[in-house]
Protein: Sec-independent protein translocase protein TatA
Organism: Campylobacter geochelonis
Amino acid sequence: MGSMSVSHWLIVLVIIVLLFGAKKIPELAKGLGKGIKTFKKEMENDEDEVVEKVEKKETKAKDAIDATVEETKKA
């Protein structure tokens, strides 16, 4: 029960052709490719947003520490 052999893949391919028809397969592949591309783009955008939020929090924390140090020096 390891990986699929060539004969298994051929059976899967035949079933797909029977279900969708030979003309529909390129359209399905194109749609799948666009979906994956959009998903990856959105994941990159989400990562950028997270990095920006972390940087803002770090800046706020540094500012708060600096303010506390200044107050301590004045006292």
The longest helix spans residues 24-74. Helices lie at 6-20, 24-74. The mean pLDDT is 87.
